[in-house]
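__Record contents__

***
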Amino acid sequence: MAHDHDLAAAYELIYTVAAGKDYRREAHDITALIRQRNPTADSLLDVACGTGLHLSHFRHSFRHVEGLELAEPMRKAAVNRLAGIAVHAGDMRDFRLGRRFSAVTCLFSSIGYARSVDELNDVLDCLAAHLEPGGVLLLEPWFTPKQWISGPVDTGTAADGRRHLTRMCVSHHAGTTSTLTMHYLLGEADTGIRHWSEEHNLTLFTDEQYHHAIRQAGLRDVEWHPGWRDQRPRITAIKPPLAGSPDPVPTSRRNGTARRLGPGFGLSGRWRRT
């Protein structure tokens, strides 16, 4: 059985060291996408923020940032990292923080933990409810059914000078549920070697289901952009301004790296660029 600090440490070692995930660069790129759609954006909520690695960079780009995290070991690590920043305990399917933000993000495929289309709709309703008029949603979806490949065993090793970590992961799916079973070995000179396993179930939603959930939440101007690795895109959408208010930024001034998509866009599991 892993201790809370083991879970958070293993997560960070695997993704920052073994997988080479560049949180600084990602935060920079995400901030640019948000500002292209709302140049005056000055507040951000990161939903399912994990250990706060993205927030640690967003805090330098936005006047006010907050996080929301369901897994308590991850939330504790974020609180320790982000002195003075509120990291709320909460479920992305049903939370109410009592304020709205210029931007709301839900990153690294956390949306896949919604277990059904109804729950996906609930998540998007919550995200949209925490956006100001003219605010920007940025979502990183999980794999679609067409993208998913079951079976391969993925391995990763990482070390930070004090801790040594090995993770092996095998995946399969049943229907639209993908299951990842992960086994960890974490070794430290003073405490020995610890082993634990985790199982993660994420839903394989289609592009159309994401698009419909975003639209039914009242968001518009849905666009798809390249993201982390080839088949992990980003989606942006905007909460319409109040009647009589100007569009935060006209479409013609936005960066031309993505195409605005309407119903029946049919991406076949990949983003489309112009």
